[in-house]
Predict the structure.
Amino acid sequence: MMTSHNDTWTQIIKKPGCLTLLLTLWFCTSAQAAEPEARLADKHLNFFKQYCFDCHDSETQEGKVNLESIPFQITSIEQAEAWQKVLNALNSGEMPPEDSEQPGNTEKADFLDDLAQTMVAARMSLSDSGGKITMRRLNRREYRNTIEQLTGVKVDVGSLPTDGGAGSFDTTGASLFLSSDQFEQYLKLGRSAIDEMFERQAAMKEETRIFRVEPETTVNVESLKAMRQMKETYDRYLLWKAEVDKAALLPENEEVLAQIREKYNLTDLTDSVRLYQNANLLGGMPDAKEFGFKDANAASFSFQGGYGRKYAYMKYYAELPHSDRGTYLKLTWGIQRIDVSPKPKNLPPGNYTLRIRAGAVEGSPSSRHFIEIGHPQRINQVPAGFAGMPISSHQVTGTIEEPEIIETQVGVGAHIQREFGIQERQPINKKSLRDAYNRDKRSNGYGTPPAIWIDWIELEGPLPSTKPPSALQKVFSKHTDTDAKSEADRARAILGDFAHAALRRVNPDPNFLDQLLSLFQTRRKAGETFDIAIRTPLSVILASPGFLYLNEPGDEKSPRSLTDRELAVRLAYFLWSGPPDQQLLDLAEQNELHQLEVLREQLDRLIADPRSDEFVSGFVHQWLDMERLDFFQFDVTLHREFDENSRVAAREEVYQSFAHLLRDSEGGRLGKLLKSDYVFINGLLATYYGIDGVTGDEFRKVNLPSGSPRGGLLGMAAIHAMGSDGVKSSPVERGAWVLRHLLNDPPPPAPANVPQLSRLADKQLSTREKLAAHQEQPQCATCHRKIDPIGFGLENFNAAGKWRSEERQFTKNKKGKILLSKKASLIDTAGKFHNGPEFANYHELRDLIGSREDDFARGFTEGLIEYALGRPFGFTDEDLANEIVNSAKSNEFTLSEFVHSLIQSKTFHTK
Amino acid sequence: MKTQLNRRHFLRGTGTLIALPALESIGFRRFASAASKAPATPPKRMVFLGFGFGVTKETWFPNVEQTGAKYDLSKGLAPLARHKADFTVVQGCSNQYSNEAHWGSTFWLSGANRFSTPGQSMSNSISADQVAAQQLGQDTRFASVQLGSPDVRSSGHGPGLSLAWDQRGKPVAGLDTPVQVFHKMFSADDLPLEQRQAAIAEQRSVLDAVLTEAKRVQRGLTKTDTDKLDEYFQGLRDIETRLGKDEDWLEVPKAKPPIEEPNPGLKGREEIEVMYDLIVAALQTDSTRVMTYRQPVQSLLQSLDISVAPHNMSHYTPGERMEASKKRDTAQSELLAGLIDKLKMTKEADGSSLFDHVALAYGSNISSIHYLDNCPTILTGGGANLKLGQHLVLPKDTPLCNVWLTMLNGIGINVKQHGDSTGIVKELQA
């Protein structure tokens, strides 16, 4: 595998003038199929002879370890364990022992590299399922989508355990478990969906209402009231303060004052808050209660936390022009969120339109021209941002003179808080906003200036559904109570038809229906109405195995072709993460779906349908390990703009770029993900990237000027944010990610027990200097010589994916506040691939990675196979992967060709 | 009745490997009557607390030169000083098959080899707590209770739904918030007896119904798929067992909660503290005798005002990250010390303390950074009759499962082996 290439390469490097050949070789290193065996190259025998056999040959067998007896080809779990021990002993530095001859650093690193890769191959080969596709239950996404198709209700699947783990896709049957708790959750969720469907239906009979909030009559009025109170308290405070000042002059208090000075380490107490906080210690002071304060502390806080802090701010806002017909959103103090909170009963479950008429304040920074919508949160009855993440964010494109109406659709569910709030976009951690406020206040006397003016907000609904009726609705309208049938017959018909739909057109066991019917009848006898009693057995259907599992009968010894119905199910769950629709099932029923042209046509239809967004997000998220994007709250001091809205938009950019290629059958070349001359962004990301002329919330294709660092995954904020810890960039994470996902040369799993290097850690060094230590120890160098140069090549992107050409070190003070050093150092991105070409900067690095389309395609294909078939990619799939890559290659690596080729393969049609 | 017996027969038939204690008790009311009064001697309990990413090697482990009762507590364990005579620190143990540097919990209590099943890239085996639950769980309302946190994805635990894995090596689900735990343990069921009987009857009918369907689905499946579907059957079987229990306990009201209902939304330090209170409450009321807790690390750090991410912290080097790691150790030790306080303060009917009847293990499969050798391990409580108050340094790479086996035997569960155990740890026995 890798070894032979490296060998060839080393030989060529020694000869001058072979650069072209070298590059050609580099470009296709791992594109060739790996041999389906796990074998350590014979040349390593010398390594053993030289460093190990003195103690561990068949004669000595020290520690009962006989390395001569372990075959180089690993074919059993026992052999793999033996080799794992060898690898661990070398990684931990335990072997060779200190007092014996040590291999050179490069020699050891090379050996470890080969052995680690061989172990990966061995684990893969030993855990190869032999092509078996384990039946799987619906994962969370699929369950949610399937329930939605059946009932029209989107349930919150947060109560179900997360899927996957162990590094596999959430479609891998073997890793999708089911427990008794989960079964009960399915019953509960199914029931809540059915209940909500009835609620929604009832709501449809109600009139559409419009709730409008004019903030000048709500927010502004309340603000003025708060200001009046503040002023009144302040006046009392002044009276009290005068008393304190008087008391402080009394000779009897000298000692107390000295104590206060000492306690707070102050030389002078004039106008110090400490004096007033401790005023109760002074003699000759009237009680604070006489001034309407609980105690001295409360009195001084009324100024510190109230008037002194925010009165000027609120006054400034209140007196701004246009405050008589709208309001300015406050970012820090005062009322910061405008709520639309009708009585919950007036907001039945359904679809609503939310409109906001708003304008941006001229001269305020464009990165602040965004509002976010969410469910209001109150802590101890005090408004405090949103409960959970914002639902959406919107760019304010109008001005105060010419406001624009932002319009968006929001859903109200039975179990979701029935009110909405809007506020200026902001990070969840608001501490730094207050720091900025204080800075602003020192310079302008009031605080952070406004950026957005709101005229009004309006909520309209419930609106008629635009979607076709759900399966359950159809069943109910087919079997109405006006039918002459007996009640039992009607119930049975409803249960039978719904089960048929839920089981994806399979008939349930007739005894099952009998049992469901008797559940219904028991409830009826207990006094429930028909419409209520029927829900119990209906929800049982949604917890039954034929619904929960994508089951295909089969025989491992003699694989068979799928029936057309099974094919329809596989296709739909692959590309929609949801059930097949009428058209697919009808084609299946007519036994036409498997025909090549029909299949081609249907696949194009499935991809063109918006439901394939589920495939895009589900697949891409896992393929590119995007889970890390959500791991960190970004440090607000350093990365103020990377708030939840930016995170969402950055993620969306990745999905949109992929979706564009998937749906573009003409030019949707996979390699555009490595480098492209366009980006898919909306107004928010354009502002973030500093690209002019893009406004609004819709993502669209935007052409880039030449020389732009954007375009392709390596130019996306999401990818770089994933390769960080929310504070600093992590060249190691980024380098490993590139190897894993772009170059298809994944480093082996992080080894356990490698000695940690710590001698440099407390020194002020650049990341590059720190990581240079990786190269000293062969156990580290074996992977890091491949990882680190790539990571450094991407250092022009900061932790939040913004472009930078210099870097400033920082330290943290005791309070955890970041102190940036004044000195900036230029970022050096030049480097060289391990055993590969050099690059002078990021652009050259990206070009080199861009030229590895074959490798990228191969890695993508392996992921696609795993995701689609629902089993780990194994050696069994080598031929299939080759077939797909070759077929796509002859079609210029058009993304949809990979998918076509996969679903036409025999494997996809076989159980 | 006929279908019910059929279902039970069927469930028993398919689960050849599974012991079905409660199914053997159709109409058997021993438990209810036994539970309605306090047992003559306080029962034995077992608790495992797992903290994912390991500890700070330099400051958590006591000096290996000082063993036995006379040893100096390390800095990281300093908050436990008042209990020094009542816990033992064990060094030298590890799980030999563990290679996953970020999985602190997956194999911690099972010692399994991830790759032991040909054709599968992930397998596990029963965890020590579930071995205990098979016996200790028979006489309580809940056979075992698993606690977790909504915030465990980046806390260094690895795959799994809790610390517990069942007899087939499948993950056992856990309760992720204090509020959930509280309601499960203590929320009174106000419905009249008849309605609760009817509810149980209905749940049985539901099981009957889906079982019919499951048998249809099972027809013609491959061997692998049959195994997969078996999880579903196992789920039904577990519910059946639980319904049997519910029936046995129908006339016994749930225990009165000894603590207030926790506030929702607790995170980090407070969250762990309240979970510890709930552990005490659940044991004290004998609602269960086996508990595990997969503790949050990320939210713990956040609650300590540490902005370093857990994984970064685990890779500490001298400086900010190492300080964060030490701060974490201290906080965790303080929390554990608080739990021991409460266990000691809680009195049993015979005047002894709850602490005397609990066997508690606290640790992780990850030692520190990416080290999987010398799993940090603290044993406390008098339940397993262990020799407490010592610093025990075992030979390097002693199977951690030897410790679990010693605990299990000590608590009266006479298994001969657990995981890859090679025998008990004699030095641990009092």
